[in-house]
Amino acid sequence: MQTAQVAVEVLEALQTAAVVVDDSNVMVQATTAAEEFGLQPDRALIELELLSLIDLARSTKSSQRVEGAINVGGRAAKVWVLATAAPLGPGYVILTLEDRTEARRLDETRRDFVANISHELKTPIGAIGLLAETLQGATDDPEAVLKFASSLQREASRLGHIVQEIIELSRLQAATEVKNSAQCRLADLISDSLERVRILADSKNMRLVADLDDSILIEVSYEQIATAITNLFENAINYSDPGGQVGISLKRADNFAEIVVTDSGVGIALEDQARIFERFYRVDASRSRETGGTGLGLAIVKHIALNHGGEISVFSKPGLGSTFTLTLPLTASSEDNE
Ligand code: ADP
């Protein structure tokens, strides 16, 4: 028992979730972290998966591990844990638990991301290969050469766009703090973003209507917020029929700046609204491809909002249009009283 005591003290110091069970599987010791899992000292351990791991450690006289979803401490929700059982002496076994839910979720996200990237890159790469091959066979037809060369150029620029957005998103996800933030007048930043989409709007004969409170000063990464707003504008234009109107408003709401982008475009069904902020999620993949979309634009907006302590939300009705609201926290010095 002396050994068990020392082991638990060490694990307590390391903030590890650990319990020591006696030969009848009663928990005689538990660290604070184990109690947070719902494992209480002086009670019998009841989780079947953990009991069989402990039995195995006892019978083989060696340390054993298992990883899986377990209802630890009688809780309703399963937790993904890595459990290790090691024999300690006559009948006693020490069991440690590591909550790997978050690590597993990250692993899954990473795996999905890599699978999605490979899929997204395959299409333009395949097209480039085919076009190059066709070009080789068309050397005696200058008109065809021109046509294929311009398609080649389009696919290459599409590929470049996807890669650029992937890099941007990875950078945003890796960042724990916003770099290069400086105070700026939010209305100016929004007007600047409007200029960036002016040509696109003109090409579809669309009006951009702004109603901006120009007294709001905010400390943000100028480039990131301009990217987020530009992405929202581009979507509003791309997912609307020609001749429509896109509205942008900026106002103060308590301690937040509220930026609202409204369109009267195709709209988004309720079941898709929760998913459009996921990487590569597109409601209508062919329409998105037509407009040069990558399915990454809103994921980028979401990360920029999160990195700034803000939020992005959507309200939309299919056939009527969509409203995206970006809220950004203001600091005490954000009122321009001059
Ligand atoms: P994409 O590059 O495909 O535009 P986004 O991440 O920006 O990717 O958007 C994801 C999907 O959400 C789009 O493919 C589109 O289906 C939908 N969407 C985004 N903005 C709008 C909008 N303003 N109106 C209608 N649908 C939209």
TrEMBL record:
Enzyme class, broadest EC rank: transferase
Name by which UniProt lists this protein: histidine kinase
Natural source organism: freshwater metagenome
BP terms from Gene Ontology: cellular response to phosphate starvation
PROSITE patterns associated with the record: HIS_KIN
GO molecular function: phosphoprotein phosphatase activity; phosphorelay sensor kinase activity
PANTHER family listed in its UniProt record: PHOSPHATE REGULON SENSOR PROTEIN PHOR
GO CC terms, sorted: plasma membrane
SMART domains: HATPase_c, HisKA
